[in-house]
Amino acid sequence: MSFRFTLLLILGLPVTLSAQQDSLHQHGDSLNRRPIEVQEITVTATRARREEPTSVVSVSPSVIQQTHALDTYDLLRLTTGIEVHDQGQGPGFASDASVRGFSSDHSTDLALWIDGVPINEPVNGHSEGYNDWSLLFPQAVRSIDVYKGPTSALYGNFALAGVVNVRTLERMSGTQAWASGGAYGRAEGTLLSGFDHQNSSGVFGLRGIREDGWRPNSDYRLGQGHGRVVRNLTPLTTLDAGVELYVADWNSPGFLTLDQFDRGVFDTVANGTDGGFKRHAQERMSLRSVIGSSLLWRSTVYATQGRWQLFLTTPPEGGSGEGTGSQTEEEDRRYGFGATSALTWAGERSELTVGMESRWDHSAYENWFTSNRSRDSSQTLLAARQLSGALFLQSTTDLGHHLRLSAGGRYDLLGTSVTPEGGASISESKGVLTPKLGVLYHVRRLADV
What are the residues whose beta carbons fall under 8 Å from the beta carbon of 357, sequence distance 6 or more? Predict the structure, then answer.
């Protein structure tokens, strides 16, 4: 039996959430009657609306605030159609999120976006599209949209199982502090502060966690930083800048053999030197502008940096490529840049978004055989680069009161090169065209099909 307590301190004024203004569609006819004060920037999909099909789930701020979550994956555990399977190695070792039964290692086929910036890591030697959600600051989340399946033309690479699109708070007044503790030496503290002026606003946060773990040698520590500042340049143009940071290190008891698991022997440690660390940083700047009475233009540029190192002993009866019975080391050092831009036109019964995105990533990956974190021999040493670009179009049209037509598509072009240490570079490129078509029919007072 475990016990958990929570202490909430609120200093100053309560949090004030701005009205959602991700899309011109939400202003409707009011565009023609009054000036618009732009409050927020998101270059990705507009938030899910009530008339969207059931493959789209929108998690509101009130639900997020009432959800008791130990980590960022916990925020989505109760969302219909989503399962989370913990990897259990530490906060920088990405867990598996399964959507509609579609599971992928380290959530590689579930695209995660935070404030218009993709989180999945291309050219990752451990797992292509490695999706570490620890960059997400739970107390700063304002809303979450979940798109089940590759239904949206606004998202491309790594969105085969679905998309999780996250928006953070852009304004609050005063300061809030949280402190909590629990079994196995768990302690957590969070500080969130912000300001809300007429033409500018901001939110800043710090978060720290430590826990000893329920098995020997399974302790971990995590620290996070969050910052976002929004400035209205004119009544119709807004500049938005943000940064997400986190550091984590952990120890790992290693895998259990099948016999140990069946006998309930959980207090064994495969190798006392197993564990790892991760460092991750992401910076972005966005610009949003309303043009005339029916056009919205929004663009984002961003940069990412990261490094992680992992030591793990796998049991002899492990799967293919893992059953070595010895300790291995993996190290990944990376940086990257990207940009997205989109133009949305909103009519009385239709909405059209057209845009483009580009991304460049570089990583250096190493895989070693080790003994107590001392390197014996190398398995893989290489550098990899990936350049990608995409054009996308998405439209919705209401054909009467009961029928909605969605159409669009995207074209993605990816070029990847890999250079083994002491070897020649290998390059490959490919293009992917993905058309999208959907029909939504409302049966009055009964159902949506």
Answer: 156, 338, 339, 340, 341, 389, 390, 392
